[in-house]
Design goal:
Elements lengths: L20 H8 L3 E5 L2 E4 L1 H19 L4 E2 L5 E3 H7 L1 H5 L5 E3 L5 E4 L4 H11 L8 E10 L14 E11 L2 H21 L4 E5 L9 E8 L5 E6 L5 E3 L5 E2 L15 E4 L6 H8 L7 E8 L2 E8 L6 H8 L4 E3 L2 H8 L16 E5 H5 L3 E4 L5 E6 L9 E3 L9 E2 L6 E16 L1 H5 L3 E3 L5 E3 L1 E8 H12 L16 E5 L5 H16 L4 E4 L5 H11 L3 E5 L1 H6 L2 E5 L4 E5 L2 H12 L1
Parallel strand pairs: 3-7, 16-18, 18-21, 27-28, 27-29
Antiparallel strand pairs: 1-2, 4-6, 5-6, 7-8, 8-26, 9-10, 10-23, 11-12, 11-23, 13-22, 14-20, 15-16, 15-17, 19-20, 23-26, 24-25, 29-30, 30-31
Helix pairs in contact: 1-12, 2-6
The protein binds one RNA strand through helix 14 and helix 15.
Length: about 575
RNA sequence: CGGGAUGUAGCGCAGUUGGUAGCGCACCUGCUUUGGGAGCAGGGGGUCGCAGGUUCAAAUCCUGUCAUCCCGACCA
């Protein structure tokens, strides 16, 4: 491909709408352009890269026996009403009407359509197991799309759906798919991990997320280097810590401390010169069944998901200031676990119960209470693990030190069981002639997000760096001076030679100064580069630049150059 | 949906107390250049996001609205 006839609108400066390195690079290198918030055009370069990524995924999917198809992006809303997800999905499901005034929606996912398809076309256990997949658009009307392709409203996904006769079959399909995912992400060179996850809107019995470690990931996950334990921060558990109480706090009754204008644990700790771990903080939450108080150690955060579960409630948010004042009789910042009005429940973290003599708020302006002892000074209704794991905590499995890392979710695999087949009444006949629901699984990979993550993880601030397998071109030839006949002759000879060899080459034949062309080629991320200029002619040697190692190899003749390239690309 | 920021040439930005809009890069023409974002000369390009209002006069002040981005909530 000649650069002059291709379309690569590269940008010299960072576009102001991008913050994330990978997002800036995608725009600067002419891979994508935004049309509206969360809606992108893939430019030729981005599309080439995307296709290569898709092919890797296709190969691995096909090798598990999965079969590709393509389902409609526009779907009748009736199907969603039937499954009940018309309501469940809420505003993320974009609805509209056709000219006949019939309701339709843009597909945020395809469980309904695939289940309907299989229901109508698969009748016997003899046709199972069956795994179907597709690679194409989904649309979710996100409240806040951001970071380029990382969280877009319209995005490309690989989604696969398995159909089995029973649970054992599902387990096998799931296992195969998980292995395919491992192959895919290993081929891409990612450092990743599967973690157990909440099933969310898709639902089902069991699911795992494929997380790739990256500083800028939107998710935080907890991992144990020692035993391999990994879980999302919202799920992770750690062994309760025990901090012995301060000697000075070991008193037979509570003692009031004067803490003028000191509200946060931070402020009070500094004022009293006491470590944050000696505090127990009390937070008031509003729930569907009234107000509750929750306590964790001063240096910790409450895990609201765990709190909901332990308290048996669904909705939870921090009480408004005015309500806190009503309940505690003091301004925000001085809440303690005793003498609380109109409160339904006090739930405390295990760590609070394990130790004694805490410092808490005194429910009085400018005062805190020391020597507070659970069971003596207040009676908790529930003791449970309601804290968020933090770095340094002890692993629940092996007591090793846990660390907390940011990660990006690139894949999610689910055991759905009979969730959709039962709702949509999708059945087959088993060996005994009995009618049974299909046992399903579903498996997704965010493709655009994966492409951007490759760039995020492997590139530096000014140059995209992609593995050869997904780079838009394998090799670039840069003609430094198209006005020089000798240089052009050599460039074109190499271009012809490599093209004949079937190598995906981009040849920069533009009438521009050398610097611009070199910068552009480096920016767009081509792994190998042959520069042809005066030096080539003078020395009668060919130069091959290997981007990954930042090295240059020189060759006396084209044969040895071609041989080396063939070697590098194999 | 709450909080915040920004909308001026293709891109990045400046524009003071209100007085008829500018810089860099890019673009076009010509010549000279070509191993890391070239030089000289000439040139084109704007409904200052949009709609109202105040004023003799609005990019500038006021009101509304739309868009984009960030934080949060939400979702995965």
């Amino acid at each position: 491909m000649k650069y002059s006839s291709f379309f690569i609108p590269s940008l010299k400066e960072d576009p102001k709408e991008a913050v994330l390195k990978s997002h800036k690079l995608l725009l600067r290198a002419g891979y994508v352009r935004q049309l509206a918030g969360g809606i992108y055009t893939y430019l030729p370069l981005g599309l080439k890269s995307l296709r290569k990524l898709e092919d890797i995924i296709r190969q691995e999917m096909n090798s598990t026996g999965a079969v590709e198809l393509s389902m409609p992006f526009v779907q009748p809303l009736d199907l969603w009403k039937e499954s009940g997800r018309d309501e469940d999905y809420g505003k993320e499901l974009l609805r509209f009407k056709d000219r006949q005034d019939r309701d339709f929606c843009l597909a945020p996912t395809y469980e309904e359509v695939i289940t309907d398809l299989v229901k109508k076309n698969v009748k016997s256990y003899k046709e199972l197991p069956l795994t179907l997949y597709q690679i194409h658009l989904k649309f979710r009307d996100e409240m806040r799309p951001r970071f380029g392709l990382m969280r877009a409203k319209e995005f490309i996904m690989k989604d696969a759906y398995s159909f089995d006769a029973d649970e054992a079959g599902l387990d096998e399909s799931y296992r195969k798919m998980k292995r395919a995912y491992e192959n895919i992400f290993n081929r891409l060179g990612f450092n990743f991990k599967f973690i157990k996850a909440e099933a969310g809107e898709i639902g089902g019995n069991y699911s795992e997320e494929l997380m790739v470690f990256s500083e800028y990931g939107e998710d935080t996950i907890v991992i144990c280097e020692n035993c391999g334990y990994a879980a999302s921060t919202s799920e992770a558990d750690s062994i309760s810590d025990y901090h012995g109480p301060l000697e000075s706090c070991r008193q037979p009754r509570m003692t009031k401390l004067f803490t003028p204008d000191k509200k946060s644990v931070e402020e009070v700790g500094e004022y009293l010169k006491v470590d944050k771990v000696c505090f127990a903080k009390t937070l008031i939450y509003e729930t569907e069944s009234g107000f509750i108080a929750a306590m964790v150690r001063g240096d910790r955060e409450i895990n609201e998901r765990k709190l909901k579960k332990a308290a048996g409630i669904k909705n939870l948010f921090l009480a408004k200031e005015r309500d806190v004042e009503k309940i505690t009789g003091a301004p925000c910042g001085f809440a303690g676990p005793f003498g609380l009005n109109s409160l339904n429940l006090i739930i405390i973290d295990e760590e609070i119960n394990n130790s004694e003599y805490w410092i808490t708020g005194a429910n009085e302006k400018d005062a805190h209470m020391a020597n507070v002892k659970p069971g003596r000074d207040f009676i908790p209704d529930i003791v449970a693990n309601i804290r968020t794991v933090q770095a340094g905590d002890k692993c629940v499995r092996c007591s090793g030190a846990l660390s907390v890392k940011n990660a990006i979710e690139l894949g999610h695999i689910f055991k759905l069981g009979e969730k959709y087949s039962s709702i949509l009444n999708a059945k087959f006949l088993d060996e005994e002639g009995e009618s049974r629901f299909f046992v399903m699984g579903c498996y997704g990979i965010g493709i655009g997000r994966t492409l951007q993550t490759l760039i995020e993880v492997f590139s530096d601030d000014n140059e995209i760096n992609l593995p050869v397998s997904v780079s838009p071109f394998a090799l670039a030839i840069v003609n430094l001076n198209v006005n020089d006949e000798r240089i052009t002759a050599v460039s074109e000879k190499i271009y012809g030679g490599l093209t004949t060899m079937g190598i995906d080459v981009i040849y920069d034949d533009r009438k521009l100064s050398a610097g611009i062309k070199l910068k552009d080629i480096d920016l767009i991320g081509i792994p190998f580069k042959i520069v042809v200029g005066n030096r080539t002619i003078k020395n009668n040697k060919y130069e091959l630049n290997i981007k990954k190692d930042n090295t240059i190899e020189t060759f006396d003749d084209l044969e040895s150059l071609y041989k080396r390239i063939r070697e590098l690309l194999s």
